[in-house]
Amino acid sequence: MATASETRAAPAYQGLRPYVQMARVDHWFKNAFMLAGVVLALFVEPSLARLDVLPELILAVVATCLVASSNYVLNEMLDAPYDRKHPVKKHRPAAAEKVRRRWALAEWLGLATVGLGLALAVNAMFAASALALWVMGIVYNVKPVRSKELPYLDVLSESVNNPIRLLLGWFPLIPDRVPPLSLVFSYWMVGAFFMALKRFAEYRAIGDRATAIRYRRSFKHYDEQRLLVSVFFYAIAASLFAGVFIVRYHLELILGIPIGAGFLAFYLKLGLQQDSPVQNPERLYRERGFLLYTVGCLAVFVLLMFVRIPALYEAFNVDLVKTAPLWTIER
Fold first, then answer.
1. Terminal C-alpha separation, the chain
2. For 4, phi and psi rounded to 5 degrees?
3. pLDDT value at residue 314
4. To 5 degrees, how large is the angle CA 172–CA 130–CA 300?
5. How far apart are CA 26 and CA 143, in angstroms?
6. Pick the CATH number of 14-178 from 1.10.357.140, 3.90.79.10, 3.40.50.970, 1.10.10.60
7. Please, which residues have CB within 8 angstroms of residue 77's CB and are 6 or more apart in sequence?
8. What is the pLDDT of residues 232-244, one digit of tens each?
9. Is residue 309 left, alpha or beta, with left meaning phi > 0 and alpha meaning psi from -120 to 50?
10. Alpha-carbon distance 278 to 167, whole Å?
11. Which residue ranges make up each domain of the chain?
12. Whole-angstrom Cα distance, residue 103 to residue 291?
């Protein structure tokens, strides 16, 4: 039998839990995309591979997680009327009316304030990137823009968080310049590939076009064919931008192209399944084959980043073409 004090404490605990759920701590794994920025910074400046940079990186991760949670709270508050029309998301705290709007608003602002404050303690460029992450949450969710309701912009405006996270991994180590833009754009397009395939899986899972449109207005424009075409567009764009980076900065990564293509194909296979797991990326760890393949890919690419194979440069003849240009565009 519960004591009187336990009985009184229970409502307070139950009242707090929905707010913690809105912060979506289980989505913090997405900040692993910062790792690419860290690895790239170490590739550019190997002298930064020191233990004394760890506190700065840990602070950067904590700040990013808090800013991301602020965005999740805002998303859930404003999406509640639409989530009630979704077969699964209707159980989210805001959709199920388990939270008070004013307290959720305070949570949104509080997480942002603490996260951005910690970001300032890292450095100005990191703080600017963290602010960009937070602002994109507003652009994505808040009217009059609310880009999540606009076809194609919904995917691009959410997936832009990928390159922002790359910057959030880069700037704690190298705050005085930006990383190669070819890789930044490739990272963006990879994120768009993930997001477009998630849209495709959601559309198929709902199964009824009218219901899909009530849940997400951008589905008024989409159908399965259009979504799949966009998936292939983003995959091709990501590959082309990655090719520019490889040829310009580190040709050894060309050996990883078949493995990278296999990763995209594996993810596409998951996305084409009925009731696809890509609808909830935070649960992809349950796909053990995919998880093992992803870890293997990361290991290969990190290894190739720090390996030098001079024979490749001779074999692929990466010297610039000497043909005179028709036009030269000056600044």
1. 77
2. -65, -40
3. 83
4. 55
5. 27
6. 1.10.357.140
7. 22, 94, 101, 104, 105, 108
8. 999 999 999 999 9
9. beta
10. 25
11. 14-178, 180-309
12. 37
